[in-house]
């Protein structure tokens, strides 16, 4: 059965989505924003006190890359922390009274499921979606190169057999289109966009091309505060900065796209570790990783709440 301190298969996560929503119907509403290429429903959980009128919101997604299992574990952890600490934790209570958090627990469900169903280690390392590409047996595109942000201009490949294949056009991947449509539709209320990856212990923000964001100074200072909070728990070291100069330039990423749409507080987390285990982070690290990351996400959320 489902466990917050283990990695869960898609089937278990799907059942958990139903049960956690049903058990916390005072705080959680769920909606299907579309289906994946292979037909799996993409559920977004809206978490917050139900006030009957639209509230300012934060959009949080995990698992855009299939093999980054700790990312997917974090969204489940976040939902559980939100519902179990609402009322007892003043910061969470205030946040969920005033704002909603939209959580997409697994962005790339087909890819995630593929990393579970196959016994071959090479498929545990699958990153992309599972769509068919014209004229080749190689499947999938990198959803984090498929957004309409300087699409396929740098740090992305036109070769469908590569891990950073940008797709046949921006939003060619149905999962990307579903998320982009949802954020576009709700852009007047979405104040922050947080996307969770692994690994490298980084907190990144726009741009992933060589240009400073207009809000660079503020994004950097909020990131530094978030890291300070994260590090305070177990001493885990993080670096913060704009994507292009902190890791590498890359076009078509969700965070640049969200920022250019007008979502000012747009961040990418790259969770533990720094390479010892990489994408194969042991289950013993799920709890400490999620607990420390909660502090950083809550720091950003509380900052955004204060700007309202
Ligand atoms: O390359 C990526 O997509 C991310 N790193 S990962 O190792 N998790 O694949 C970095 C975030 C990229 N974000 C943008 N390009 N906007
Ligand atoms: Zn990633
Ligand atoms: Zn906790």
From TrEMBL:
<dbReference type="GO" id="GO:0008270">
    <property type="term" value="F:zinc ion binding"/>
</dbReference>
<keyword id="KW-1015">Disulfide bond</keyword>
<feature type="active site" description="Proton donor/acceptor">
    <location>
        <position position="270"/>
    </location>
</feature>
<dbReference type="GO" id="GO:0004181">
    <property type="term" value="F:metallocarboxypeptidase activity"/>
</dbReference>
<dbReference type="GO" id="GO:0005615">
    <property type="term" value="C:extracellular space"/>
</dbReference>
<feature type="domain" description="Peptidase M14">
    <location>
        <begin position="6"/>
        <end position="304"/>
    </location>
</feature>
<keyword id="KW-0732">Signal</keyword>
<keyword id="KW-0645">Protease</keyword>
<keyword id="KW-0479">Metal-binding</keyword>
<keyword id="KW-0482">Metalloprotease</keyword>
<keyword id="KW-0378">Hydrolase</keyword>
<keyword id="KW-0121">Carboxypeptidase</keyword>
<dbReference type="GO" id="GO:0006508">
    <property type="term" value="P:proteolysis"/>
</dbReference>
<protein>
    <recommendedName>
        <fullName>Carboxypeptidase B</fullName>
        <ecNumber>3.4.17.2</ecNumber>
    </recommendedName>
</protein>
<comment type="similarity">
    <text>Belongs to the peptidase M14 family.</text>
</comment>
<keyword id="KW-0862">Zinc</keyword>
């Amino acid at each position: 059965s489902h466990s917050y301190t283990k990695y869960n298969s898609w089937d278990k996560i799907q059942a958990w989505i139903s049960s956690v929503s049903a058990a916390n119907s005072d705080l959680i509403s769920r909606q299907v924003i579309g289906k994946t290429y292979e037909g799996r429903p993409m559920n977004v959980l809206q978490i917050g006190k139900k006030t009957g009128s639209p509230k300012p919101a934060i959009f949080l997604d995990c698992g855009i890359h299939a093999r980054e299992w700790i990312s997917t574990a974090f969204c489940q952890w976040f939902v559980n922390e939100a519902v179990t600490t609402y009322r007892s934790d003043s910061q969470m209570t205030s946040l969920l009274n005033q704002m909603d958090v939209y959580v997409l627990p697994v962005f790339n469900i087909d890819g995630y499921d593929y990393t579970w169903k196959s016994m071959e280690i090479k498929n545990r390392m699958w990153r992309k979606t599972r769509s068919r590409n014209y004229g080749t047996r190689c499947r999938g595109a990198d959803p984090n190169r498929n957004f309409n942000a300087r699409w396929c201009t740098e740090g992305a490949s036109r070769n469908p057999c590569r891990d950073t294949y940008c797709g046949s056009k921006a939003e060619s991947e149905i999962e990307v289109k579903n998320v982009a449509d949802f954020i576009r539709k709700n852009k007047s209320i979405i104040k922050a966009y947080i996307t969770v990856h692994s690994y490298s212990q980084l907190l990144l923000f726009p741009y992933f091309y060589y240009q400073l964001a207009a809000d660079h100074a503020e994004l950097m200072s909020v990131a530094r505060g978030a890291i300070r909070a994260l590090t305070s728990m177990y001493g885990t070291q993080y670096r913060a900065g704009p994507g292009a100069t902190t890791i590498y330039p890359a076009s078509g990423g969700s965070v640049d796209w969200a920022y250019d749409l007008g979502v000012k507080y747009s961040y990418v987390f790259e969770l533990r570790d720094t390479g010892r285990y990489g994408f194969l982070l042991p289950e013993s690290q799920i709890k400490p990783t999620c607990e420390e990351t909660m502090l950083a996400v809550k720091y950003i959320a509380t900052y955004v709440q204060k700007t309202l």
